[in-house]
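Researcher: Here's a chain I'd like modeled. Treat it as a single chain, no partners, no ligands.
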Amino acid sequence: MATGGKFDPDKLRELDLFGHDEPQEPDPIESADKLLRHLREWHRELSEQIVSVNREMGHVAAGGNLNSPEVLALREQAQQLRDKRAEVEAEIEAETKQLKALLARQKQGEAAQLATSEANDKAGLIRVRHPNRDFFLADLFDYALKDDGASMEAPIFTLSTKPDLSIWQWTSKDGNKSVKVAPSVLGRATQHDKDVLIYVVSQLTEALNRGRDDAKNRTVRFTVYDFLVTTNRRTDGESYKRLHEAFERLAGTRISTDIKTGGQRTREGFGIIDRWKIIEKSQTDERMIAVEVTLSEWLYNAVSAFEVLTIHPDYFRLRKPLARRLYEIARKHCGHQTQWTISLDLLQAKAGSKSTLKEFRRAVRQIEADDSLPEYRFVVGHDDKVTFYVRDGARLVRGLAKKIGK
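Model: Modeled as a single isolated chain. Structure tokens:
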């Protein structure tokens, strides 16, 4: 579907953005849900295009001429994309209301949808915990989630589920990039702690896309409940406690690196986040209601330069830290390619695994068997070569045909 034409929701209903010729479901609830998924996919695509245009505009305007024809043309292109995305958002809101009305009339509330979700779950995925949510607050990021390229590049976060008190060092294969990560007494920040980073980066990127002045501030305020729901976590007291611990690990984990973000290199040690602060507490217990998180300058530079990638919301359903890291690596390195191959030992280094190669191979093969990564699948060959493929069948065929034709 071309993004340059007039928005036509009726035409959208006739298309399958995932490249499959699935028959139209007669059930109105299933049809509405399918349309919402397509709309969200289109929204993610438009968000990615806006980020790309803004990134290009930053490069062109680096010379200082903010009113050059090239910059003005890119501004107009960005505005057109924002207008198209606003139309999609309006359609999502309308379809969401229609779906809720259908559910109310047929008395098929959350329990029925959870049962369906659990029945369709793959071994490596957590069920969708909040299927019937209100949209257009923090929920906007359910289909505009962003991950920063800097932390996707290097294994900053530990894959361990137990406190990791070791110092971790990583150097890229070409020797041009390196990272040293030192934990606090509470341990190194975990792959699940990164949910906070993704949420904050998503908020900042969206604010920058919309031209909001407050996006120039590295500090983001949000409600804890919205964070828990958006990242598919429980909303019980234990989840609030775990988030508190995640804040401590994120602020306590220190990084020194020569990886540039936004064209700048930060030479001193810094925390993943500079600080966090509880703004409001519950009057009845110790739960945090609203918090503020300040990103490190290193990470903020990456966001302000639009060095980010859109990720699939099912990332938050992945149970295993290694599965989440493999998805990040695939998303980072596949990019616009349809497939990408890497040796198992190099993949282990990029993933940040401390296990033996034999144990790592077994863990990766288990995730391969689960087939749970969103957007990508992969195959481990007998020669210990791991090949990632896009799940979109039509896109994969086009990419392979183009490669053969060269």
